[in-house]
Design goal:
about 80% helix, mainly alpha, 14 helices
């Protein structure tokens, strides 16, 4: 979302407002799909343009220069990378297998949600929790590039026995939907940074961040409008998804606490580690998954449910981390 470091000023992190936006998109899309299936089908034809807009906006926010800044603290970057891309996927696999093994499509969506660390809004919550946002900014492009490179591997591991992915098409999809938009978005970012005054460029970046939840909500509306009949047939399974996601959040918080104690991290890095190992990159994963695995609304619905639960959890985690910092300041 909005990059809290663009202007150097604290900005409000997304929270219940974005959750309400997504809930509204689900409700409106579901209402349209149930009351007027023809309109729902018509709205589904706009999914591809919405996806390309969403991917482009997300890629525009990536700041490759921040990778260089991360080299100044490779110790923390290595700890966070191992946690996010080696330990957390194992945790996610165990939890998804425990709760959703009987629902293969929802299981697939839940795994995709668990496997990808956040590359945008978690930084706002990190700032509010007094975490190290400068180091977090260096972590963003590393997380983004790693998960893009790993996405085909994750797909193969998760779906190789399901038949929902045609792996022959993956190279073309990566080129058409990811590499080209990434290069175009980064080229546009560089060009605008050269042509515009700094203050104007920062406003453009802020506007891009503000558009992402709106585009995400549009995609959610289109998906639910076109597929509400399929999704509503599995409503009972969504309760298990909520329990699984809650278990995931508790386990990743415990992981962050254990790593912080093991490596004796200072409080600002503890807060950053807690946020990056908890927050997930649901918007990008929703876009990538809808492109790589078309016409599978149950997979998408699992990702959307994850987004809805995540914001309230991050707000609670922020309060927990603030209380921890206050106790440390008071010598308790």
């Amino acid at each position: 979302m909005t990059d809290v470091l663009q202007s150097g000023k604290p900005e409000a992190a997304p929270g219940f407002g974005v959750t309400a936006l997504f809930v509204g998109a689900i409700a409106l899309g579901s209402g349209v799909g149930l009351s007027d299936p023809a309109l729902g089908a018509s709205l589904s034809r706009g999914i591809d343009p919405t996806l390309i807009a969403m991917v482009g906006l997300l890629f525009f926010e990536v700041k490759l220069r921040a990778v260089v800044a991360g080299l100044a603290n490779m110790r923390f970057i290595a700890i966070a990378w191992v946690a996010n891309f080696m330990i957390v996927p194992v945790i996610g696999f165990a939890i998804a297998s425990l709760f959703m093994s009987g629902e293969p499509l929802l299981y697939t969506g839940l795994l995709i949600y668990f496997f990808a660390p956040c590359t945008d809004w978690f930084l706002g919550f990190t700032r509010m929790a007094r975490g190290d946002t400068a180091l977090g900014a260096a972590l963003l492009p590393i997380n983004m590039l790693t998960q893009l490179l790993l996405f085909p591997v994750w797909l193969w591991i998760i779906t190789r026995n399901t038949g929902v992915v045609d792996f022959v098409t993956i190279p073309d999809l990566l080129l058409q939907w990811f590499l080209v938009p990434f290069l175009v978005a980064q080229g546009a970012r560089w060009l605008l940074s050269q042509l515009l005054r700094e203050v104007v460029f920062q406003k453009v970046c802020s506007a891009v961040g503000s558009l992402i939840p709106l585009v995400t909500a549009t995609l959610i509306l289109q998906i639910f409008a076109a597929n509400i009949s399929t999704i509503s047939a599995h409503l009972e399974a969504f309760g298990l998804i909520l329990v699984a996601i809650f278990a995931f959040f508790l386990t990743t918080y415990a992981l962050g606490e254990a790593l912080a104690r093991l490596f004796k991290l200072p409080l600002p890095q503890q807060a950053l580690l807690a946020m990056t190992t908890t927050a997930r990159n649901a918007p990008l994963m929703l876009a990538l998954t809808a492109i790589a695995i078309p016409n599978q609304p149950l997979i998408y619905a699992a990702l959307v449910i994850g987004m809805l639960v995540e914001f309230p959890h991050l707000i609670g985690l922020k309060q927990l981390l603030l209380a921890k910092a206050l106790r440390r300041e008071c010598g308790v």
